Amino acid sequence: MALLQISEPGESTAPHRHRLAAGIDLGTTNSLVASVRSGVAETLPDAEGSHLLPSVVHYSAENKAVVGQAALSFAQADPLNTIASVKRLMGRGVEDVKHAGTYLPYEFVPGSSGMPLLHTAAGDVSPVEVSAEILRELRIRAEQTLGGELQGVVVTVPAYFDDAQRQATKDAARLAGLNVLRLLNEPTAAAVAYGLDKGSEGIIAVYDLGGGTFDISILRLNKGVFEVLSTAGDTALGGDDMDRLVADWLMQQAGIDAAAGHGQQRHVLQLARTAKEALSKDEATAITVSRDDGSSWSGSLSLDEFNSLIAPLVEKTLGPCRRALRDAGIRAAGVQSVVMVGGSTRVPLVRDRVAEFFAAEPQVDLDPDKVVAIGAAIQADILAGNKPDDDMLLLDVIPLSLGLETMGGLTEKVIHRNTTIPAARAQEFTTFKDGQTAMSLHVVQGERELVDDCRSLARFELRDIPPMVAGAARIRVTFQVDADGLLNVTAEEKTQGVTSSIEVKPSYGLGDSEIESMLRDSMDFAAADKDARRLREEQVDADRVLEALQAALATDGDRLLDAQERCVIDAAAEKLSELRNGTDYQAIKQAIKAVEKASSGYVERRMNSSIRDAMAGHSVDEFES
Amino acid sequence: MAADLSKTHFELFGLPQSFEVDMEQLDSRYRGLQRAVHPDRFANASDQERRISMQQATQINEAYQLLKDPLLRGRYLLELDGYQLDDEHNTTSDVEFLMEQMELRESLGTVREAGDAFAALGLIMDRIAGDIDERIALLQKQFASDSSERFGLIADTLTKMQFFRKLQQEAMELEVTLEDEIS
Q: What is the predicted ipTM?
């Protein structure tokens, strides 16, 4: 029998500081920021009271970037400098963009890192930088509303985003000066927002059709644990495509050439979007198209006509739904409820088809535009440590298989899609020539057999392999996917214990040095002294380490440590506390390392003790039931 | 590293070492363990704790996947008994089994010619799933037996199951390809 632990009065756990945290939904069309205030998660409005920030950035030669509604007003007059739907370009290569260029009216220039740059009046900008402008705007909004610096954020991404797209999103957040606690999949965030943990159990589907992306996730809910069983989708399918279809129809009706100018196209596209929105309530809508020559066309679009225009697109979402069900090993009838997310689920045909497919009435109680940000805010609040007793847990999966290129341009899968993360797997390779000292590896993501049909993530060069006869070397390549769904690859030569050097070259991303230089160049840090920033960063880190350690020691320090071990840890912590108030950032950095070293045995003991507690807790549950 | 993880996967989950697994108990222990070690619990901890948490959560995920899956669980049980299943050299001489393999492979090859390719593929996938279920039932009997030949029989069943799994994988890949083609 366990003894109750009674702490002495006044000696209980360290006083808790509320940490400012926020959830950010970085959308194709609109972005939002939400936070938990007085126990309620809500989206934060701007000064004019609007919650949605249009994901649009306008660049001009004289001013810095303008974001949101203000930028949107330039769309027609200055289309080439007004960047919208940049999410579609995140983590994409020049080749992908050539295809997208047919409907994204920007001037692209190839960048040095395989990533396309957008040519604007303020110079060439990468999609990551454009996204960082949007995130920075949201950060400022949150910090002004909440009255302090954000300690951490959860940024949402489409569940079907690949590694390059996730990494690009995280880079953008870093560039905007945000500390990313977690990248969270949008459908999972929506499930959290629906409060589906509170008492509800069973299988649910989240159908998320946004401006430019589509996701379907199948989740199992059980006692506060959200376990994603499978996910599928299309990262280039959404409401934007509906607008495009309606715009094409309008141009045809109005006799406007497909080669019309950017301004004319933006005008028609805006009319198409307005018509789509009207048709979520009305049976028909009147439209007037102004032509560049001053003449105009007037007509109307009925709901039936609209439905037949977009029907193929809606059908296209059902393929991933079938695949997600099959991967989850669930039949459509086994799904208890379907949650609808994303502005495009307001379209009646979408709701009807989804209801029919799952034979369940879709849940639409929450605003489909806000639900993702709200879920992210709830998760951010928990990750920031504001709710130590909440036992909500999200277990997510990787959406697409990760693999390596083998002989003949074929893909060898290393980690399969829908594997729960974090996940790791090692694969052994050998040399095929005598004395071979280098080997190149190509990491890809996707389900197809041919490498060319998969997404190229990175190319690795393994060097310093000890020269041996062909086939004698044992090179172990380890794939580790973290809780953000991001891949890390390491390699080691086994027979002689040599760790081969690895050179990472992301296929469509930024190298660490590029991000560093962008950080230096960015507005926020241009004026600030570099050392002052480093010092601030180390101080924040020191506070985090000390606070976590004190909380741990108060909980189980007496139980898991003997007096001498405790002394060593306390001494290291005291040293760090002292240095933290100084100005030598390198000394602080070293003191943090020293604390981590001193407490490494304790950390492992704690982890094992919590595993034992988890098992013991279950025995009690089972005894009671 | 951590003492708890040097245990067998069965011990880690507090389950008896057996082919029969109480799935409800496995699921609930999995959730309990992840609640204790998942990186979300350590989002504010030191780099070191976050690293350990990721490693442990990874190992628990791996153990869970293995225990949940009859094929992997079967192989693991043989390994624990010191019996290595050899992937490359273990060919089977069961003619009936080989015929079925060929037949299934052939019908996968002709799916595109069917009026509704997805329906045709669905039927094949159902049949493969049925074949796998049959093998699971057989494994249950074989693992329960105390005959001295059981390891050889189990190895044979597992090898065959592996073939069906491979077919299943190919069928799923074909489905993705077909979907890409229509879009």
A: 0.86
